[in-house]
């Protein structure tokens, strides 16, 4: 299978099977991929960003999300302390695209990508298409773990490039 096209959208509403996102000037419902952990209504909330994947002749599915977190400050080793409603206080490693922010501002955070328990990336409040989030790392994670076929409910066909 060829590499899926990934787009980033802002979440408006969530249920267990799909989420409502703001896409191209309208609200659109997109179902979660089989790789997205459940319970989803506890993991995704309005204001989060989601990565939506679309491959050739495949359904459009949500494959990842970034939390909207409050910046609490920095640590001595350059990490960022964040507060996220579902997880409380976490310490996140900063992506190269992260711009240092004052405490009380908001940034997008994610958990599950290799290299750190938590990552902090782009500034909240930007248009989703302009958000500095981990799309290349996300594609690499899906490739390295052969997850694309599962995400699209297809027979495994190897790496997606």
Please characterize this protein's 3D structure.
This protein is mostly beta strands and 161 residues long. The protein starts with a strand and ends in a 10-residue tail after the last helix. The chain is built from 2 helices and 9 strands. It is 9% helix and 42% strand. It folds into 2 domains: 5-65 and 133-151, Nucleic acid-binding proteins (OB fold (Dihydrolipoamide Acetyltransferase, E2P), Beta Barrel), CATH 2.40.50; 67-130, Beta Barrel (OB fold (Dihydrolipoamide Acetyltransferase, E2P)), CATH 2.40.50.
* CATH class value of the largest domain: Mainly Beta
Structural class: mainly beta
Overall geometric form? globular
**β content, as a range?**
35-45%
Major beta sheet summary: 9 strands, mixed
CATH topology-level fold name of the largest domain: OB fold (Dihydrolipoamide Acetyltransferase, E2P)
User: Considering DSSP H and I runs of 4 or more, what fraction of the residues is helical?
Assistant: under 10%
Q: What is the H level of CATH, i.e. the homologous superfamily of the largest domain?
A: Nucleic acid-binding proteins
The ordered H/E elements are EEEEEEEEEHH
On the 0-100 scale, what is the average pLDDT? 88
The CATH architecture name of the largest domain reads Beta Barrel
Alpha carbon gyration radius: 15 Å
Give the termini distance in whole angstroms: 8 Å
Low-confidence stretches: none
Report the count of strand segments: 9
- Counting DSSP H or I runs of 4 or more residues, the number of helices is 2
Number of domains: 2
């Amino acid at each position: 299978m060829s590499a899926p096209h990934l787009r980033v959208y802002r979440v408006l509403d969530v249920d267990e099977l799909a989420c409502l996102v703001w896409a191209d000037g309208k609200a659109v419902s997109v179902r979660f991929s089989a790789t997205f952990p459940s319970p989803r209504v506890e993991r995704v909330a309005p204001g989060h960003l989601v990565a939506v994947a679309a491959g050739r002749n495949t359904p459009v599915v949500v494959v990842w999300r970034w939390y909207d977190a409050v910046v609490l400050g920095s640590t001595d080793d350059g990490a960022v302390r964040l507060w996220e409603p579902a997880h409380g206080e976490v310490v996140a490693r900063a992506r190269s695209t992260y711009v240092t922010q004052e405490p009380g501002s908001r940034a997008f955070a994610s958990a599950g990508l290799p290299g750190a328990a938590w990552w902090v990336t782009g500034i909240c409040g930007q248009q989703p298409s302009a958000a500095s989030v981990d799309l290349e790392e996300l594609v690499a994670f899906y490739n390295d773990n052969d997850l694309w076929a599962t995400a699209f409910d297809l027979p495994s066909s190897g790496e997606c490039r």
